[in-house]
Write a structure and sequence with these properties.
Blueprint: H1 13-26, H2 30-35, H3 39-60, H4 65-84, H5 90-102, H6 106-120, H7 129-151, H8 157-176, H9 178-183, H10 191-197, H11 203-207, H12 212-235, H13 243-262, H14 275-284
Amino acid sequence: MTTGAVQVGLSTGRDQAEVAERVQQAGTSFYWAMRLLPRAKREAMFAVYAFCRAVDDIADGDLPADRKAAALALWRDEIDRLYAGAPADPVARALAAPVGRFGLRKQDFLAVIDGVEMDARGPIVAPTMAELELYCARVAGAVGCLSVRIFGAPQPAGDRLAAELGEAVQLTNLLRDIAEDAAVGRLYLPRELLSEAGVPASAAVARDHPRLAEVCERVAERAETRFRAAAKTLAGLSRRDLKPARIIRAIYHRLLQRLRDRGFATLEPPVRLGRWEKLAIALRNLL
């Protein structure tokens, strides 16, 4: 797949400002990693994040499943227009220059849409391990593949890092949000582990089950393994170019440690890292 059809310069200053505002308002932990990038890379990452937020908001919204599917289909059409050189949405226009400059792949944008569509079809409840791996690969790994190209990571190590760190981050998020997800009928813990622990594959029942903590700890162990793999891959890559990935890894690894330190017998309030703590982690990883 080539990116030659995409025309650089389609976006406007207004598009860039709108994208930056969306990212800042989202309060994402990724903000500190993105904010410290050189301008071209920063704007590219902001545009990628704004795209992810736009499609994720569809899946998390209140529309019925058929209208969510239709809205995501419109985004697939918009990605087609982006690669044909005629994007219409402000976020897609902001992506035009990064796609051409950094060789961002169409397949990765479409994979993100496929991932959020898994949520949009209805609450995910106790997926198989294979389904959970696919979900992580789409909603996080594909974003990582876009990101490492912007950062300048060589291949295939860059995509390996994207898969490792993407799964680690996504599993950490799922562990943090168990109670919040259960409130809307979602349960992302793998069916096999729930079955082995005798925990019913039901969001409402599993949340208060006495052996849920065992399942969560096993998922946390898997996330820890993926964080270690990401650290090993990062060790072989440029420290200068991959500083954002190091920051993301450090922030989410700290969050996972906090979750494990508290234990999973208690799910509320959700564990969070404060703004200043995330900034301190980011600054340490700049040295």
